[in-house]
Design brief:
Largest sheet: 8 strands, mixed
Shape: globular
Strand content: 15-25%
Oligomer: single chain
Bound molecules: 3-[(4S)-2,5-dioxoimidazolidin-4-yl]propanoic acid, fe (iii) ion
């Protein structure tokens, strides 16, 4: 019997990233991929392809096919910019000093509160497109530059609206516990009460967030305050993620792991016990080398220990106006190798399979496998190692979003 599918791609090499296949890339040389609807229905060596007919057949011309890239940690909906702060930091002021002087996150909060939803949408579009143009098919977007009910809702609605207009999956995260708004100065516990009792329930009621995040750091919220946010999120059936131990060791990672968090992000200052706790809970590590680079940090996340413990290591841009105004996930792959010592294959896993884990969507994407979404990128390259190595000239030849061919470039 002849199988029928919507799309058949032949004459490609597939970097499936499927850990059940041999090799770091789970590579299938001279592969074929069959797609029906928005899913992969068959993938394997071309010579094993069952006799098939397809509405559309694409000759991959010997290029490489990867899963669509996933940027699992961004703050790409915001008002204003912080080029002035960049100059101050170049002049010697630290990120913490700028933040404590009322700049940093709070300056973006002022700009985001002042912006209309239409302004925020227009400013976010080129950031989104920059990521999409390099083969990103799933993007997480956080709020956290509102710090009041209306502006948090405004940011999340803009993120949801982007998803309606662009061929990309957008997952949204409420990061209302990002910084203490000026009107709550000296009353952090009261602000956390507002987050738990008003902002999160309103966000959940409108189904505006797929997860809840928090900034657990000496310049932001304490472990105790973050635990309250976690409890409130769980009460609303929302999974949690934590910005943890970027600037100091705080215990945030252990708290997050104990709560079964999807991910802990940054984690430059984690200890051996933290790594063990993550391995036990299945919490993913999200490495953000662009923020490390921008802040000229010197303390590295403990990559060897994470690797040895089998903790999934995702890589993301952290795209935001303060610590990583760098809208390129491919550049982050390169930085994760050069700055953190990941292999090129770990870098690709970090923006596919592990990033899907960090978002809690690994049952639907992140590897090329029958039954998963046909989010795929065809790259004009001879080796998948080139993805972490070669910036600029190497661009996707084709991007498929849920089996649909979307214009690349
Ligand atoms: N960690 C970060 O890297 C960003 N937020 C956070 O909690 C930085 C946000 C900013 O500086 O605007
Ligand atoms: Fe962040």
């Amino acid at each position: 019997m002849t199988e029928r599918c919507d799309l058949l791609i032949t004459n490609v090499h597939a970097a499936t990233m499927d850990p059940s296949l041999p090799g770091a890339y789970g590579a299938i040389e001279d592969a074929a991929v069959a797609v029906t609807g928005n899913k992969i229905v068959w993938i394997g060596p071309r010579r094993e392809l069952p006799e098939s007919t397809a509405d559309q057949i694409i000759d991959g011309e010997g290029q490489w096919l990867t899963p669509g890239l996933i940027d699992c940690h961004t703050h790409l909906v915001y008002g204003g910019h912080r080029a002035g702060e960049f100059a101050r930091r170049l002049g010697g002021e630290s990120y913490e000093e700028v933040a404590r002087a009322g700049g940093g996150i709070l300056s973006t909060v002022r700009a985001t509160r002042a912006a209309s939803a239409a302004d925020l949408y227009r400013k976010a579009e080129p950031r989104l497109k920059a990521l999409m143009n390099e083969g990103v098919t799933t993007i997480e977007i956080k709020s956290g530059y509102g710090l009041d009910l209306d502006t948090e809702l405004k940011q999340l609605r803009v993120a949801r609206r982007l998803a309606q207009h662009y061929p990309v999956n957008i997952l949204t995260t409420c990061l209302a516990a990002h910084a203490l708004p000026p009107e709550y100065d000296g009353r952090a516990d009261d602000y956390i009460t507002l987050v738990c009792e008003e902002i999160l329930p309103a966000v959940a009621k409108e189904q505006l967030a797929d997860a809840v995040d928090m900034f657990c750091e000496n310049i932001a919220f304490s472990v105790e305050q973050c635990q309250r946010v976690i409890d409130a999120a769980h009460h609303l059936d929302l999974p949690v993620k934590v910005h943890a131990e970027q600037l100091a060791s705080t215990g945030a990672t252990r708290m997050a792991a104990k709560a079964g968090a999807l991910s802990v992000d940054h984690i430059e200052y984690i200890t051996d016990e933290d790594v063990a706790a993550m391995a036990e809970s299945g919490t993913a590590a999200v490495l953000l080398p662009g923020a490390f680079y921008t802040l000229k940090e010197t303390r590295m996340p403990p990559i060897d220990k994470l690797r040895a413990a089998g903790v999934p290591m995702a890589i993301s841009t952290d795209l935001n106006p303060g610590t990583c105004p760098l809208g390129s996930l491919r550049l982050m792959m390169n930085m994760s190798c050069n700055l953190f010592g990941l292999t090129p294959a770990e870098a690709l896993a970090g923006v596919t399979r592990a990033a899907a884990r960090a978002l809690g969507v690994c049952c639907s994407r992140g590897v090329l496998r029958a039954g998963l979404r046909a989010d795929m990128v065809l790259w004009p390259m001879e080796s998948p190692d080139q993805l972490a190595y070669e910036m600029g000239a190497l661009q996707p030849a084709e991007v498929f979003f849920g089996g649909r061919h979307v214009t690349a470039g």
